[in-house]
Request: fold
Amino acid sequence: MNEELKETDPKQYEIVGWMSITAAILLFPSIVLGMVLEVSRKPGVVVFLLPYVLLFGTSMGLSLYVLYRFKRLLNDRYQFHDVDNIVTAILILGGVMGVVGIGIKIAGTFLKINVDDPIKLLPMALMAVGILGLIGLPLAILSIIFAVRLLRLKDSLFGLLKPYAYLTIVASALFATFLLAFLGFFLDAACSVLLGLIFLRSARGVPHPEFV
Reply:
């Protein structure tokens, strides 16, 4: 009983909402640091590794936790269970993707510093792309399925259901192409902001517009 009250406490929703927005904010500096680590071959670039890992890891962790809480929100407030299994799969794959991605970034940074001939890095780069693709493509497909199923919800989530679902579909499609994944990160940040607003409005009980 106490656990149920805790999950539906408006203050809890507000905290989760700000966590989602924080995840979106942290994503931008992590993208910049990731680009610096990607293009630089100077030994001094390693000083950016720890900030990158902290920012990207925190953003990823917050995003996954918020998605879990979103599933609970759908269950508790709307008795909506159509995306339960999909969310669980996304959480697992998303966690694996985050850990693997950080590991590849760290390994790639040190390899570029210590290997003089960039051609020698090509096989390892292709292997890294293959690993990320094996995880990222199913994750992108699951995210699209999640968004499509989410549209079955009878409530408009304060007018934010369709914008959130459609942005998720587009962002996931960009991630699936791999080459356009960079753009997907920006849309993913927008999705996090929308999800944060859903939680904040759920906490405050703002009525949703009927025309959406």
